[in-house]
Amino acid sequence: MNSEIERLHPYTIIMYVVAVVLVEMLTMNIFIIAEACIGAFIVGIVLMGPKKAFSDFLFEILLSFFTILIQPLFSRAGTSVLFYINDYPVSTEAYIYGLMVAILLVSIIQWNLLLTESMDSKKIIYICGTIWPKMGLTISVILNLIPSLKKRYQIIHEAQISMFGQAGGWTVRLKRRIREISILLSWTLEGSMEKSMSMEARGYRSGKRENVFDYKFRLEDKIGLTLIISLGALTSLIIGTSRVDMWYLPKVSLPQDMGHTFLVMVLYACLILLPLIVKIRGDYRWRSLNTKE
Amino acid sequence: MAFLEYKRVTYCYPGDEKPAIADIELKIDEGEIVLITGNSGSGKSTLLRQLKPSLIPAGKREGEICFKGRDIKDMSIKENAALIGYVTQNPDDAIVTDKVWHELGFGLDNLIDDPDEIRRRVAESCLYFGLTDKYNEDCAKLSGGQKQLVLISSIMAMQPKLLVLDEPCAQLDPIAARRLTDTLIRLNKELGTTIIIAEHDTEYMYGQADRILMMKDSKLVLDCDRNTAARIAAKDKDLKPSLPVATRIALACDEDGDVPMTVKDARVWLKNYLGSALEAIVEAELGEKKLAGRDDRPVKEDSIVEGDRTIRDDRPVKEVKLAKADKLAEKKEDVLSLKEVCFRYERTGADVLKCLDLRVKKGEILAIVGGNACGKSTLLSLMAGVKKPISGKIKNFGNRIVLLPQNPKALFTEISVEEELGVMLMDAGNKAADGLSLEDKRAMVEKLLLETRLDALRKRHPYDLSGGQQEILAIAKIMLLKPDIVLLDEPTKGLDHAYKSFIADWISRLKTSIKAVVIVSHDLEYIADYADYCAMLFDGQIVSQGKSDEFFASNSFITSAAARISRNFFSKAVTEKETIRRIKKYV
Prior knowledge:
heterodimer, A: mainly alpha, two-stranded antiparallel ribbon, 2 strands, B: alpha/beta, Rossmann fold, 2 domains, 6-stranded mixed β-sheet, 22 helices, globular
């Protein structure tokens, strides 16, 4: 991930994503939702590179397809009917509604991808740690256990294959898998005794725990958070007070306050594209520093 | 007021009648390095765990343990953690957090409130132990030796006065073990930290320890300086294996002479001991080799010597330099062969094994040595047929090959020892058990229980067995599959001498019932004693192989201590027994 983004305080990053997704959730306006979706891709490409940004694309396409196709099963009240399946009317409105839902889902997936990429384990533990210190440690222990369990399972699985081979129907193989998991569990439970001894020997359980580190709240974070909160609040306010919503069934109706919709979209775009400002500023600074003699 | 004092300490685990440690009287001064040895079950771990009351179950304890005059029982957890550091033998399980920086600060987190202070101490400790380049690394990606170093660094950041280590090198390869021991000695010399360390393999620590303690059957039988301890222990067959090879060889030949503790001292001792007969002996032993123009280098079985260059070749050697025994060996059939085998884990990754050639012959014990993470375990998986090579051919000639992983816990599924053995015969995948009646199966299990001396432990849970007993049980399990070839991954890792020799003898006896045994091990002393053939794996290939005495005699670094001692004195004396025999032959 971009080093400029890495330097941001975890609160800033989380507030940004929460603000964007909340605004998206407030309305069923397809233009705003589409804007969030396209914005997710643009920010993703700029910050993570196209390969990473499109890594889930195939899944997203399939998901959208599926969502659009099954929508008529749930929404039967559309007026412009295309055809009938077993007495169920399949209408254009249903498909358009499905499209809106699909775009919403895809944008959530993309924003989630962006969030996980910009938050490394250190930041996640920091956020959990400030709310509940033991949770931070628990997450750290889990993050350590997962690769270790994977490695252990591999060893167990290979030993079983070497002893009993791989032949057999699916019931036999299922039984073997269950046996392997049971070995993994007992081995890990045994190891957990050692882990708890190692923790206690170093003074765990003796009192309150402190976080090992602190993130500094820099000027960038202060400006960033102000912008995020104000843009987010303003956008939400306009959405809440004007008639920006759209309906799809029985008839697709565009939002009544198009002017307000346009304003919301402009403000929302500003909110979404904030990371790009950070990146561009960072690139500019780097270039200007390196061209100095 | 002694730094640490045990006053008539006796401890019984809950439910046990017999005490785990009995009547221990011990005084340790500040700044000492104390080495504790003894077989497993002798009470070493129990003795050390008494210093950390939160680590032992609430059994019956008598006596007092005083640290700087204060009873340990009166210390709070925080105080105890700040003053006494404790390191266990299994770094994989002892590491708690996901990142190195988090692990380093773990202990301090519990003791201090000030994050700046924590950061300062962590930075200092990290610098001292040379972990700066690993600071942001995932703990899962570290090797065993690095993990132990991180743990010790995390404990030392708390600045304890006493560091207690319970077999810290048991799970490590020799190079990592040596590095760890050097670090501990450095800690003691530069910071004055008192170190108490329990170990089976005393090769590196013995010469540095100020005090030696030896435990036997829950009692402290020896407590003195290293010279005196060596003389006393050399006379006791249970305590003798705790001494370094150099000491054992010297005291076996000359009970009242000098006590060398390192290879260097042993060589000096040997030179003096052989005295004036030295020239003649060297001439007799190494003379013929010198005539051949090469000093100590063996003729490798698969090579043709041409002038000064040795070309590795698959064709059998036709040289007269081959001894008669080697010619007979050539005639032995292959039971497993690997030809130009390549393997990698990821499609875009580098090859782990590159065009590797290896042949396993009938009736032999082949040992494979190599550095840490060089692909030895991967090679075993390929040989067992569990993984398939990317290119090249592996021929098993119809033989049944079974692999025993490093950790015997990977095989245990039942709640008692006899059930563990029984379930092997009841599984449909075990072709060797086809057609056997229930009575036959029971008889097989009984026979094996007696042979492995696990008879008295038949109802015990496998996890309640000691490390050596678990290894024996695991080997017994795979023997019930009636394999043709057995592949053992580090069978003697972390075991004490009694179990090591039991398992080593048992594996040697296996040669009569199965076709071949392939062992991967770091334990060079064990390999020198028991393996017939050795091969070294390096950079994805077998770079040298030969009969084990030639292999060890020709290597300078990857060789047994006895070989290093007798190099340039005797020809091919690679084991302790052989070296003693040669010395006694001439003097």
